[in-house]
Amino acid sequence: MNSQPVVFVQPQFAVATAQSNAWQTDLMDCCSDCGVCLCGIFCFYCLGCQVASDMNECCLCGSSVAMRTLYRTRYGIPGSICSDFCTTLWCSPCSLCQIKRDIRRRKEMGIF
Fold this sequence. Notes:
Number of helices: 5
Largest sheet: none
């Protein structure tokens, strides 16, 4: 009788990635992508259309609370509609830039 080797530990597959259920950059992290920051400041509506296009949504929705909430819930990012509203109300360019930077980072990681 030939005895077969017994496997005690199965091989595991793991992928090391950045935490995908959190914002990839902070709200005020403009220096991490100066091009997005400049576009958000000087051509806010163009950046809103880019974000909406990336999300397959209407161009007019790009800078809205609804877009931020949709994006946040799609990727399981913690927060609330109230926080989305306050962020969009008091710092619209920063909010939109954060979403665009996040989209770029997620595309680079292959999770967008």
